[in-house]
Design brief:
By secondary structure, this protein is of the alpha/beta class. The protein contains four helices and six strands, in the order αβαβαβαβββ. The strands form two sheets. It has a four-stranded mixed β-sheet, with helices on one face. Strands 1-2 form a two-stranded parallel sheet. The longest helix is centred in the N-terminal third of the chain and has 14 residues.
């Protein structure tokens, strides 16, 4: 996902909770440091749990976070990329990637529900 996706999602999340604090869970620590030099970044055995219990989530289009995000009863808002795996192309490749629990962000930073 492009850097703009993340920064638009953070702005959208700040509109919901201006005091939200951001951290990054990733398996690409090097790229995360490039995108988010001022945020805590982690990649360890607790990644799944971190996603499972976070109150606010901004998801990538990776399948890793789907299950812990869907099981998360603490989540107040979950932002995911509109069109999931085809976010940059602008159409859904897989209809099963539509979850009512997620709020989807388009390429312009607008939020949508499914």
């Amino acid at each position: 996902l492009p850097k703009e996706y993340w920064y638009n999602a953070m702005e959208n999340m700040r509109k919901i909770n201006p005091r939200v604090r951001f951290g990054v869970v990733t398996d690409d620590v090097e790229k995360a440091r490039e995108f988010f030099p001022n945020f805590p970044i982690k990649h360890d055995e607790d990644d799944w749990r971190t996603i499972r219990y976070a109150h606010y989530l901004i998801l990538s289009n990776s399948s890793f976070a789907i299950l812990p995000a869907l099981l998360n009863k603490n989540a107040k808002k979950i932002i995911a990329p509109l069109h999931w795996a085809r976010h940059n192309l602008g159409f859904w490749a897989l209809e099963q990637n539509k979850y009512k629990e997620f709020t989807y962000q388009d390429r312009d930073g607008n939020l949508h529900t499914i």
